[in-house]
Amino acid sequence: MLNHTTLGGRLRRLRLDRGMSQVQLGKAAGIDNSTVSLIEAGERQGHPATIKALADALDCTVADLITEEAP
Fold this sequence. Notes:
Elements: H1 4-17, H2 22-29, H3 33-40, H4 48-57, H5 62-66
């Protein structure tokens, strides 16, 4: 199962690395910025299509968002 906190943390890191606000990412992904906020906070998992749209908007793969890194 996907760790919501891990997804949210990766999403936030990638968004900030690209210099995007939650509003900008939401617009680029075609979703509401409140959804971006909820996912980053770990309060929402996000539908697979939403995660794909976020990955596309961030120019990364879905795996970049959901795969746990080795310690």
